[in-house]
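Hi there, hope your week has been kind to you so far. Thanks so much in advance, here it is:
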Amino acid sequence: MSSKKLSSMEESVQGPVFRRLLKYAAPYWWQFLICLLLVLGITVIEIYRPVLTGKAIDLFSESADFSQIAALSIQYVVVLVLGFIFNFLNTWILQLTGQTIIYNIRQEVFEHIHSLSMRFFDITPVGKIVTRVTNDVEALNEMYTQTLVRLIKNIAKIIGLTVVMFLLNVRLAVLALCLLPLIVVLTIVFKTISKTTYRIVRTKLTALNTYLSEHLSGMKVIQIFAKEREKNMEFKDRARDLFHASYREMLVFAIFRPLMYILSIVALCIILGAGSSVVLEGVITAGVLYTFSDYIRSFFEPIQELAEQFSTLQSAMASAEKIFTIMDEESLVKNPEQPVQMDGIKGRIVFEHVWFAYQGEDWILKDVSFTIEPGQRVAFVGATGAGKSSILNLIGRYYDIQKGRITIDGVDIKDMSTDELRGAIGQVQQDVFMFTGDIRSNIRLKNETITEEEIKEAARYVNADGFIEQLEHGYDEAVTERGATLSAGQRQLISFARTLAYNPAILVMDEATANIDTETEQLIQEALEKLMQGRTTIMVAHRLSTIQHADKIMVMHKGRIRESGTHQELLAQDGIYKKLYELQLASVI
């Protein structure tokens, strides 16, 4: 796509993006109105202060009257005090309002991310999502807390200074503004270049955060294969890209600011040169000339700030576009507007001619049909990629099927509330995720209705209480990120306790005992027998010894159910299951 087309596309979305940003500020309109009035007051004070100084100079150049000087001094002090008060109130109100808006936006973004389906997280890097919630949201902070109000202040200041200068002396005012066309051209150039450089910086920053997040998560693999040097070089290249992009951005500012300063000095020289002759002619006083010189210095400052604020506004728009891209992302799994109210879930699961693919028509499941009765124990076996784990994900409706129908207790799961559906399913995965906190919080998972006794009872059921009570702080033992201080078996036992504490009607186990040693596995088998009582249980396991006592075993092969029956029935069929069993038996021998 050409840069011209890309630029036009960016311009076309900035209007709606800006309107959406204003919607977040709309509830706080009266705070912004107060800040606007304060800013206008500050602007009047800044314009009026040089006038007082000019009058004082004129008094000293003539026969000074102490009472007049005292009156001017009092006015000057009052102006300074008012300026301080106005600035303090403006900063305080604006910062408080801006931070509140940023808090609301960040909270809304994070809440929306939670509502997205698993497919979004399958294809979106974690670092990219983190950048949206942190860096991009924070980039909006300056727009709300400074840019919008100061933009109005600088425009008002430029207009006010121009009007006052023309009122003081038209000739000098015209000379003072003779460089204005050049300033406008430089400002437009700066605005265009700075917008481009900032977009590059944001892109490079996102790429760096994405790379960092991925490789910190995979640090063990990096060290196992001794790839630290290569990964350091890759990170260095990405960091260098960000450095060069940031350097170019700063270079633009480094050129623009001195240019504005030089132009202000040139304009001041013109005013002093032309104004001196006017003073000597007696047309204006020395105080008026000083006022003009002060106004010239003040006139270029808001112009310079305007250009930078436009740049900040553009950068905020760039960040907002990225944020709203996520906010506009719709979940592929949608809750029904009027979900069917279930009077308790018994656990009868029926798949009716289910077809499913993660992408396009690359079917993972092909015309799969089966029925699981309440309280029944069913196991799925088969080669990797056969579709076993996909069935478990579909039961919890983490993905939606393309064809067919899945019902629980006779109700299509698409007509059920996802919260109620998932709340009735206890899922134990092979890769157990532990959150930073303690043992207790990782079992309870913010569900305050689960009592202390229920937590300990769940741990006793799955024989996790043995190692927990041996820890120095017991259930208060600190858990680091991903539970790195716990063994794989300990994490798995906590996962069992977590599932049991929620008392699900349907129990789903995806290779739940894969990371547990033989001794620990024997401990939890007894607990599993208790856990499965009265619950529909669905298991996926590669070790056939763990599922031999299931009521029904379904053999998956290339997305279809090829065999179904009990352990003995499947052995008698002399099919895929028997071959898998004999292979595992041979490997043990």
Q: What stands out?
A: The first strand starts at residue 349 and ends at 357. Residues 169 and 284 are 8 Å apart (CA to CA).
